Amino acid sequence: MRFHHAPHSPPSLMAKPSQPRPIARKEPAVPTLEMVAAAAGVSPSTVSRLLNGTAKVSADKRKAVESAIRKLDFVANPVASGLAGGRSRSIGVITQALGSPFYGNGLLGIEDVLVESNYAPLYVSGHWRPRDEQRCLALLESRRVDGMIILTPSLPDADLLALAQRVPLVVTGRSLLGPRLCSLDFDNTEGARLATEHLIALGHTRIAFIKGTASHPDAVERLRGYRIALKAHGIPFDAALTAQGHFIESGGAQATEALLAADVKFTALLAANDQMAYGAALALYRRGLRVPEQVSLVGFDDLMGSSYTLPPLTSVRHSIHEIGRLAAHAVIALIRGEPFSDPVPAPQLMVRESCGPVAGSRRHGRTGTRQVV
Fold this sequence. Notes:
Helix content: 25-40%
CATH superfamily of the largest domain: Response regulator
Distance between the termini: 113 Å
CATH topology of the largest domain: Rossmann fold
Radius of gyration: 30 Å
Strand content: 5-15%
Oligomer: single chain
Shape: elongated
C-alpha cells in the first residue's frame, strides 16, 4: 500500500522583520451624564430626569444643566432616556410642503429649539389635504412621539381637539382652546389691511389682488383684510380685480397674465404671499411693465429672498421662523405640564422699493396723465 503525502512548503530561510507596534493614542473622554451633573452642580438623577422630561426644577438649575450639555457637547442616549421616562424624545411635525421656502423657515425654527432641548423632530408633509394629514397623524402616533406640531392644518377643529386628548398638540394658523392644546394664530387679516392701506396712502385705488388657495384659512383672512381696507376708504370692491394664484410662483404669474389679458386696469398689485408676488413680477416684466413706475407690487410673508429681488419687495412680515420657535417651546411646555402664553408677533409692513405713488399724482413729484395698465 502506498501513502501519498502532501508536499510541504519549504521553510522560510529569512525571518520576517518584526512590525513596529502602533503607538496607543489616548482618546478624549466621552462626556457622561455624571460629568454634566458635576459641571452643572446638580445630582446625576436631576440631569437624568431633566433629559427625560420628568423633572420640575428651578429655571436656574435647568439653565445650568443646558449650559453644561452644550459646553461638554454631551449627547444623551435616547433609548435609555425613553426607557427611563417612558418617552421617545421625539416630536412629530406635520408641515404642508417640505420644499416650501415659507414652511422650510418654520421648520428651521422648530429644529433650533427641539435640538437644544434634546428632542428629535420627525417631519412629514400633509399637502393641505385632510386625508394626507390623517395618514401623517397615524404614522406619527405609531412612532409614539411625545408631542405634535401641525403647521396650518386642514383638518377640522373636532379632529384636532380629539388628537390633543391623545398627545400634546400645537397648531398654527388656528384659534382653538382645549386641554393639552396650544394654538398660535397669526393676524392675517390685519397684515393684508396694512398692505392695502399703504397702497391707498400712495394714491392707488385700482388695486389688484392675487388670492391664495380658496380653501386655505390664510387666503380667506388675507382677502378679508384687503376688502376691509377698501371699504374703510370708500373704494368699492371689484371682483374683476382679483385672480386665483394658489400660493406658488407659477400661480402668481398666471393670475397676473389673466388680469392683463382681461384688460383689467390697475396701478398696484397685492399678492397674498411673496411667492405669488415673484411670479407676478415676472409676468409684469415680460409685458414690459416697470415696478414700481407703472405698477406697485406688495407681497406677504417677507421671505428671506424678498430683500434681494429687483426691486426689493415690499412685504408683510409673517415671521414663520419665530412662530416655529414658539411652537417648539409650546409643545415642550405641554409635555412638561407647564403653562405657555407667549404671544405671536404682530404683522409688520416692510416697506421697500417695489411701491411708489400713482404716476402723475402730486405724490409722484410731477404732473402728467395718470397711468393705468
